[in-house]
Write a structure and sequence with these properties.
The complex is a heterodimer of chains A (595) and B (460). With 595 residues, chain A is α+β, with helices and mostly antiparallel strands. Helix content of chain A is 15%, strand content 32%. Chain A contains nine helices and 32 strands. The longest helix of chain A has 19 residues. Chain B is of the alpha+beta class and 460 residues long. Helices cover 24% and strands 33% of the residues of chain B. Chain B contains nine helices and 30 strands. In chain B, the strands form six sheets. In chain B, strands 5-4-1-2-3-7-6-14 form an eight-stranded mixed sheet. A six-stranded antiparallel barrel of chain B has the order 8-9-10-13-12-11. In chain B, strands 16, 17, 18, 19, 20 and 21 form a six-stranded antiparallel sheet that branches. In chain B, a hairpin with a 2-residue loop joins strand 9 and strand 10. The longest helix of chain B has 39 residues. The chains are: A alpha+beta (595), B alpha+beta (460). The interface between A and B is large, with 84 and 80 residues.
Chain lengths: 595, 460
């Protein structure tokens, strides 16, 4: 069939008109930022309280009705039964008083009435908290770190709903300053990866058109340190308020986020929860005591060591006390093979159970790859789950949107946080091990979880290495999280499948050892056989002058010169021998220190 | 722009076809009835041609249903093209945006910096360079370059470096105030936790602008963002999606003092950066100062605005309502005091203020006073009076005086133009000096040689 249209004048005119239409449309801003909500309120803490800042509340009626949570109120208001008065700061900075009307029984919600609400404060419209699902874009607006108490400007942060689940009745309490229990709420929460800090308790959690769908709570954050929100419909029900839900606007489609979350949901059936044995029993076997003071309570020069102490303590708490299962990727269901982060195996755990709705299946650790933080588990039988296919050529690029997928209790429950690829060539040492990095929130539930791109390809697995390669995870939810890309995993798999554990990655470099002398160029003390240096003719007692044009003034300088190179690169090395300078072309190879 | 393509495509395909204006609905035109109404002129135009076209086709044996299907198919393809094109353009734009931004990034000390002019001006934080003796910076491709400190602002936490070798560099342009809108996308580039120390690879994170041009603690013009920033991001850039510099990341607010991101990153806004840039360029390696609130001023939070209780040395009166200071709204007492301190200090600097007095709005220009840089001014010299001369008795290790090669035993002839005979002369010359001021002393060495030494006073 011919294409008569395209040879026709009207079609050309149509195309021109379409182009004109689009050109005119270019001047219209399509993506609009969220308007700053004026219905957010700050609740300053008592000055006598030893807390960093107060909480927040949300105005829901022109008559001054506002919602908040118990954990947001100043301590003095909590002591008095019945009505008590507190000071609030509304958006814009004006101060008013408010009285407590009543408290909920189940959700720790509190109904306030603000006196003399200024005319410019617009109450929040209520969104449908019951319909909120993983992947929905959310915004938090509150009094984070007390900033709104100062200048009346709530701070906004954007994220997505990363999970939706129940806080079980048996969950351990989360304590705040001075051991005060933050919340007694046990029930359904929305987990979000937007910033939710001290000061956001009782504050707004909004959907992408600015409707209230939950109140922020630190009491349900658990040790995973991601923010949680109590859905608004449960709060309204608990306070016996009937306020109409605004169903007029649909949140704008965010195809990028939706694509990522769809990808996450598609591969989630290939993730499994594994409960690893506690070799020395549950509890506190490493005996790291709780640090006696908080980081900002010690003098500056002690802060770094106290931080590390807290990190170790929290890590131990998470691994042993909270008794969590870990996430693993099923890479071969028929063979019963699961891949997870070695950091997940806390210590010498060798055995575990794959938790499935049909019943648990025992598994053991087959092999580990310590430099890449991988561990391969083998289940006793085939697994009745799907397998995850790792992308052979992931094609990561800087700024590329990705999602980090974790598992949660429940049949096909999964959590997803989103972010971008921050780096693709992260090397912490001069070895073959190279990592990619993302700013998506990643924490204990994501270790061993999949990293997916918008097309649904599994491009990596989350690992979490200590800053010096020790097995202390650090900085969860910091926005700095390492993952191993799928191609590197596929290269490491054959050895893992054979049951061989790799403890050290081959060094990628010249093949020399040197004696660094302060103020002078280093002396070469050893040349390893079969390395690029040996083949190029570098000899013991040569003085190393420069590598790849960079002067060899220190071992760090040499490492920096080499670390950007890959196996096979030819690198010019200048050495001094018997008074003469010689330039040699050295091939970068992988080798082991012991030859 | 690309977002518009996508929005349009979303609207158009495949379920939004009903929303198409009639003159775009190629496939819906029936071949059977060309309309005659003038109102439907465009349709008639197409109907006429379609009709003609149809009859031609019919004559040649093609069936109308086939043509109708084909028209719909073509329309679907044309509608989806913007989506595909939009996605491809956006991905390409994203990738090239990231590379463009990365080219302006530099590693400075254990933190970051950003190139702001093609001839090599680099902005970073004061606290990043404060303890450095060597200002060698590295680009993200590993190339190192020496640089010189032009000036630093310890109160505002900004420092300006200039690259020693001038090249035609890619640089970041400042965003202006109307780009600083809450909710817009932001991009941070930095070196969190020193991850890039070995592999020269910075970290790229994204988020949204959380609060625009606020006062936060010591920072008087802050862009707050939730793009993850950690120790090592200090001094580094915060960009918007257009690649313009919104600010320099400087501080984070954290949980219990744990120096780890919790979604609160404070960046010094580019409005403050561009205001201080000329002062920093001319600072000759020294400190620049901020304006200060009028001496003795007292403010209170009135029922609906900030009120003056005591005007101090300013031309304000008790009872004045402060509406704006330095062209920004004075929303609280803390903000007002911060705004008074937010401008660069020059001897003729004034602070514009908008007040309401007796119901009327008035504009005033308050003469600015210079803010003292906190800390004790320190040089490291101890002197002694011996036989009518002032002699250096002790030089502290690692002090500014030691770095200026002063040693024990040297005679100090004069200080800042004042001839020194007795200890009191020395004290009269030195005590009034503040941090950032220069102590210029003429000394005579043991062998009689005379020279001049200038020491910039730093905080201890």
């Amino acid at each position: 069939m011919a294409l008569p249209f395209f040879s026709r004048l009207p079609t050309l005119l149509l195309a021109l008109l379409l182009a004109l239409f689009l050109a005119l449309g270019l001047t219209m801003p399509v993506v609009m930022a969220l308007d700053l909500p004026s219905g957010v309120v700050a609740l300053p803490a008592d000055t006598s309280e030893q807390v960093p800042c107060g909480g927040a509340a949300v105005v829901i009626g022109r008559d001054g009705l506002a919602l908040t949570l118990l954990e947001a109120l100043p301590a003095s208001a909590l002591k008095v039964e019945g009505q008590s008065q507190i000071t609030v700061v509304v958006a814009g900075g004006l101060r008013r008083t408010a009285t407590i009307q009543r408290r909920g029984q189940i959700t720790t919600a509190v109904l306030l009435k603000i006196n003399d609400l200024p005319a410019n404060i617009i109450p929040m419209t209520i969104g449908d908290g019951a319909m909120a699902k993983v992947g929905d874009v959310v915004w938090t607006a509150g009094n984070s770190f007390g900033a709104m108490e100062e200048d009346g400007a709530p701070a906004l942060s954007r994220g997505i709903i990363s999970g939706r689940y129940e806080i079980g009745a048996d969950s351990p309490p989360v304590r705040g300053r001075a051991g005060r229990e933050l919340s007694t709420y046990r029930g359904e929460v929305l987990e979000i990866d937007a910033a939710l800090n001290d000061g956001n308790q009782g504050g707004a959690v909004l959907d992408d058109v600015g409707r209230l769908i939950g109140l922020g709570s630190l009491g349900t954050a658990r040790q995973r340190k991601l923010g949680t929100a109590i859905p608004i419909h449960l709060i309204l029900r608990d306070l016996e308020l009937s306020i109409a839900i605004d169903a007029s606007l649909a949140p704008p489609a965010n195809p990028q986020i939706q694509g990522l979350v769809r990808s996450a949901g598609a591969i989630a059936p290939g993730l499994a929860l594994v409960y690893m044995e506690r070799v020395n029993g549950p509890g506190n076997p490493q005996s790291i005591p709780r640090p006696p003071r908080l980081v900002n309570e010690v003098p500056k020069h002690e802060r770094e060591s106290v931080e590390r102490w807290w990190n170790a303590y929290y890590h131990q708490q998470q691994m042993f006390f909270t008794d969590q299962a870990i996430t693993a990727m099923v890479i071969d269901a028929k063979q019963g093979l699961l891949l997870t982060a070695n950091s997940n195996l806390h210590g010498d755990a060798q055995r575990g159970e794959v938790l499935l709705p049909s019943g648990a299946i025992k598994c053991t650790v087959l092999a580990r790859n310590l430099p890449l933080d991988l561990a391969l588990l083998k289940a006793d039988t085939a697994l009745p789950t799907e397998s995850i296919t790792l992308a052979p050529s992931p094609q990561l690029s800087l700024g590329q949107p990705i999602a980090v997928v974790g598992r949660h209790r429940g049949d096909n429950g999964f959590t997803a946080t989103t972010g971008v690829v921050s780096t693709i060539t992260r090397r912490k040492q001069q070895t073959e091990a190279m990592f990619a990095q993302t700013d998506a929130m990643a924490n204990y539930g994501s270790l061993g979880g999949a990293v997916v791109d918008i097309a649904g390809a599994v491009v990596g697995m989350m690992v979490l290495l200590g800053p010096d390669g020790d097995d202390l995870p650090w900085a969860i939810n910091s926005g700095v999280a390492l993952f191993v890309d799928s191609a590197a995993i596929l290269r490491a798999l054959p050895k893992l499948r054979d049951g061989k554990t790799s403890r050290r990655a081959p060094i990628v470099g010249l093949g020399i050892s040197m004696n660094s002398r302060r103020g002078e160029h280093p002396l070469i003390t050893e040349v390893t056989a079969d390395t690029g240096a040996a083949i190029a003719g570098i000899m013991v007692n040569d003085t190393l002058i420069s590598v790849d044009g960079i002067e060899a003034i220190s071992p760090v300088a040499v490492t920096r010169a080499l670390i950007r190179h890959r196996i096979g690169d030819m690198v010019p090395v200048v050495v001094e021998r018997n008074g003469d300078q010689v330039t040699l072309q050295v091939e970068i190879r992988a080798f082991r220190e012991d030859g | 722009m690309v977002n518009f393509f996508k929005a349009l495509a979303q609207g158009l395909c495949p379920y939004g076809l009903a929303a198409l204006p009639p003159w775009l609905c190629l496939g819906s035109i029936s071949s059977a009835e060309p309309t005659k109404s003038w109102r439907h002129r465009p349709r008639r135009f197409y109907a006429a041609t379609a009709h003609r076209h149809q009859s031609h086709r019919v004559r040649n044996g093609a069936r109308p249903e086939q043509l109708h299907f084909f028209k719909t198919l073509v329309m679907l393809i044309m509608c989806c093209l913007p989506l595909v094109a939009g996605e491809a353009i956006e991905r390409n734009q994203d990738r090239s945006l990231a590379q463009r931004l990365l080219a302006t990034y530099v590693f400075v000390g254990s933190g970051s910096g950003v190139v702001v002019s093609s001839d090599g001006l680099i902005l970073t934080n004061h606290h990043v360079i404060d303890d450095l003796d060597d200002f060698t910076i590295r680009f993200a491709n590993g190339v190192s370059c020496k640089s010189v400190l032009l000036g630093t602002d310890p109160v505002g936490d900004i420092a300006l470096l200039r690259l020693a070798e001038v090249k035609d560099l890619p640089f970041a342009e400042f965003a202006d105030a109307d780009a600083m809108r809450v909710g817009v996308d932001v991009i941070a580039i930095g070196n969190p936790f020193g991850l890039g120390d070995l592999d020269d690879t910075p970290t790229y994170t994204t988020g949204v602008l959380s609060a625009a041009r606020v006062v936060r603690g010591d920072y008087t013009d802050v862009i707050q963002g939730d793009a993850p920033v950690n120790p090592g991001n200090s001094g580094g850039p915060l960009f918007d999606r257009q690649g313009k510099l919104l600010g320099i990341n400087g501080q984070i607010r954290t949980v219990s003092g744990f120096r780890v991101n919790s979604g609160i990153g404070l960046a010094i806004a580019s409005t403050q950066l561009s205001a201080f840039l000329p002062l920093l360029k001319d600072a000759d390696g020294g400190y620049v100062h901020h304006t200060a609130p009028p001496k003795g001023i007292e403010l209170k939070a009135g029922s609906d605005a900030v009120e003056v209780v005591k005007p101090g040395s300013s031309p304000l009166s008790a009872g004045d309502i402060l509406l704006q200071i330095a062209n920004r709204p004075a929303v609280s007492v803390a903000t007002a005091m911060g705004l008074f301190s937010s401008l660069p200090y020059r001897s003729d600097a004034t602070i514009p203020v908008v007040i309401r007095r007796n119901g009327e709005e008035q504009r005033l220009n308050i003469l600015a006073t210079r803010q003292t840089i906190p800390g004790r001014p320190y040089h490291g010299i101890e002197i002694d009076e011996r036989g009518g001369r002032i002699v250096i008795d002790h030089i502290d290790e690692e002090s500014p005086a030691e770095k200026a090669h002063l040693v024990k035993g040297i005679t100090v002839v004069s200080a800042n133009g004042r001839e020194l005979k007795r200890k009191i002369d020395w004290l009269k010359a030195v005590v009034p000096l503040e941090i950032g001021d220069v102590l210029k002393i003429d000394v005579r060495d043991a062998d009689g040689a005379e020279r001049s030494v200038s020491i910039r006073l730093r905080p201890r």
